[in-house]
Every structure is written in C-alpha cells, then in structure tokens.
Amino acid sequence: MRGGPLPRAVGGLRRGPGGLPVEGAHMTRQSAPGSDIGRRLVRRREELGLSRAQVAERAGVAPGYLAYVEEEATASPGLAFLLRVADVLETTVPRLHGAGTELPTGRGEAAGHPVLSALAPEACRELLAGHGVGRLALTVAGAPSILPVNYDVVDGAVVFRTAAGAPALAAGQTVAFEVDHFDEARSEGWSVLVTGPAEQVTDPAGIAALAAAAATTPWAGGDRPTWIRIRPDHITGRRITAG
C-alpha cells in the first residue's frame, strides 16, 4: 500500500491532543521502553535488516514519528500510519497489534513451490549465535522432555542459566537443543539442531565470564544461579523457502 506522505513537521515539536507528539514531530529524547506495537515493529524491522530511516522513507512517514512509536510506551499510532509501515515490513496491522501471539507458530498455508534445503554447518552456527529462546530436549525421570530456555552462545557453546529443576538435570546428559524461526506471511523458516554433552559450570571465574558475555536474561525471572553449557558434537539445520 502506498500513498502521499503523511503530514510532516515544518519545524519544531508539534503536539496533538494530550500533549503527545503528532505525525512529523521532531524527536530528540533518548530511547525509552516502547509500547507493545513499538517493540513488535522494531523486532520485525530488525528481522528484515532495515534501518529506521529506510522504513520511514519507504512508508512515506516522518522518521521522528516512527522513532516516537518505537520508543514511547504510551504511543498509540493511527491506522493510516500502521497500514503503511506494515506494508513495508511485510506484515499486517493485526500482527503489529499482537494477533496470534497466543497461537502456535506455523499456521500459515504452504507456499506454492516450497524448497527444503540443508544448511551448511557455518550457516547453522551463524543462525544459532543470534541468542534468544531455544528448546532443550533431555531425559527427566526416565522420560523424554522438551523445555524452552533463554540461551546464549559463548565460545561456540550453547549456555543458559536456570534454577533447581528440570533444565538443571541436563548436566551429565547428552542432550539436543533446537532453535528455529518462522515467517508465516511468506511460509518460510529455518531450524537448527545441536546435539552434545551438557555440563554444569561451577568454576567461579567461568561463571563470571558467562555472566559478562550473556546477552539474554531468563524470561522467567528470579534467581537462576545454575549455568549449563552444551558443547556441540553435531550441528545440522534446514531451511524452507518459497520457490
């Protein structure tokens, strides 16, 4: 969807009802926690490798207002703005609002001519290194179990922190660890699978080094002092693209 540019500021900081910056307002404040829409917008923009300036130019919106929407927790952008930005980001307005967040991923229709290809080990490591949420497969009380954990990659090893409980039982086992990503709008995605021995890191210097290098914090919160490290023996991956 394209159209004429939305109103832009001629100069200074324009404000609308309630004192909020309007479309085209010049923004100079530092980054702050964004709204749910703003965080989803930033995440999708980063997935596509687009800068804020690129999105603003392609959508025909003011860069300052885009920055406001991304950064301001109270931002409530209008439909015209969201339609233009969603088009550039190859998504939809309902998805920017969070539609489908409670549903399993991968519910879209298959592409007309999908292509399934194996990923080279180097590509697998590059995707794995993006840190985030992965799935840990291990044995608990004699039965297989799969648990989501927030992870990082440090010196080629998968690491995560946990409290006493099932994830901590991975230490001493050979486990599997999987990460994936899906683009339901395009029916594309990839997955990477790691297998190898898991161990608990107990050396104080090693723990301090992992804590300093970690970019991800556990979503579950609380005190999670136990660090588990998985050293990959095998790493494989696959990608589905719309042919």
Automatic annotation (TrEMBL):
Any Pfam family: Pyridox_ox_2
Domain called HTH cro/C1-type: residue spans: 41-96
Gene Ontology terms for molecular function: DNA binding
Biased composition range(s): Low complexity: 1-12
Region annotation (Disordered) ranges: 1-38
Name of the protein described by the UniProt record: HTH cro/C1-type domain-containing protein
Source organism per UniProt: Actinacidiphila guanduensis
Taxon lineage: Bacteria, Bacillati, Actinomycetota, Actinomycetes, Kitasatosporales
